Amino acid sequence: MTPSYTLRPMTTDDIPQVLQIDHVSFTTPWSARTYEFEINNRDSSHLVVVEAAGANALRTDGWRGLAARLRSSGPPAFEIAGYGGCWLIAGEAHISTIAVAPDFRGRGLGELLLAAMLRRSLSLASEYSVLEVRASNLTAQALYQKYHYQVVGRRRGYYRDDGEDALLMEVRPLNDAYRRELDARLAELRERLNYADLFTGAER
Ligand SMILES: CC(C)(COP(=O)(O)OP(=O)(O)OC[C@H]1O[C@@H](n2cnc3c(N)ncnc32)[C@H](O)[C@@H]1OP(=O)(O)O)[C@@H](O)C(=O)NCCC(=O)NCCS
Q: What is the pTM (predicted TM-score) of this model?
């Protein structure tokens, strides 16, 4: 069966679509140059996109989906639905970014991106994972808690645009038991989302 979604490493060709999602998701989005730098910094930086295939991309909800259907003379090859990034350094997997396009939220794709980054981190011998999240971003915190991240600190005035605090969240250890749970969650998501995996490097 043709996959509805594909997880794969981000390339420089993806940057324009990624920037669009970034701009509607964050008050201080990354620049195209930052993405280029991160994509080329393959040793430590791992960026992933999830793309929605053909007809599935056209099934986008809301006005944007309607406009796409009216404009289209045929289904697009794919549409980037979300992306994420992590830095893997000395046993630490630092989630640097994660976002899903508004029309695609609430379907499990944010969870898929996070689980995939953690699975790849485990394959590459990460021992724990950390991230910063806005104190007010309860949606993202719920996602991280689902993957057993706990608040381990608070960085006062961390966000330069408005001085909001960041919560520092961490999950450890990323051990065999955690890998088994991740694999089970990824298997459930595969049933639900029918995705192809060109990113995690996990054996299936
Ligand atoms: C955070 C984000 C990536 C989640 O993506 P998503 O695809 O909508 O999330 P999913 O559908 O995979 O949901 C996974 C889990 O996230 C949490 N979650 C998602 N939407 C939620 C909501 N509206 N309210 C509360 N929790 C929510 C839940 O724990 C959910 O698990 P559940 O389905 O078992 O309840 C997305 O909301 C987003 O792009 N936000 C803007 C960017 C951002 O804040 N990034 C995080 C920066 S630290």
A: 0.92
Relative orientation angle of helices 109-123 and 138-146, to the nearest 10 degrees: 50
Distance CA 111, CA 182 (A): 11
5-197 topology per CATH: Aminopeptidase (3.40.630)
Pocket of ligand 1 (CB under 6 A): 25, 98-100, 105-111, 133, 137, 139-140, 142-143, 146
Residue in 72, 84, 66 with CA at minimum distance from that of residue 22: 84
Determine the distance separating the centroid of ligand 1 and the alpha carbon of 58, expressed in angstroms.
22
Q: Is 159 helix (H, G, I), strand (E, B) or coil?
A: coil
pLDDT score recorded for residue 2: 87
Q: Which atom of ligand 1 is nearest to the CA of 97?
A: 47
